[in-house]
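Q: Here's a chain of 66 amino acids. Please give me its 3D structure as tokens.
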Amino acid sequence: MMGEEFAVAAVRLAGAVGLAFGWVPDTFWNATPAELGALVRALRGEDADPVGGDEIARLKELFPDG
């Protein structure tokens, strides 16, 4: 039955998102597909430009951690 297949797939995806992103079920169920898609693309490295040395130096100045 279509509804049961969706429910099984949704529960599986909720578990995977919890492991990958640390989302609790409430966060998953309230997220939009676009939000989930953005996280998956970021995890896969899509649409991300590499960080340059100047940016790394700037971030080290902003967030020194010893």
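Q: Can you summarize the key feature?
A: The CA atoms of residues 42 and 48 lie 7 Å apart.
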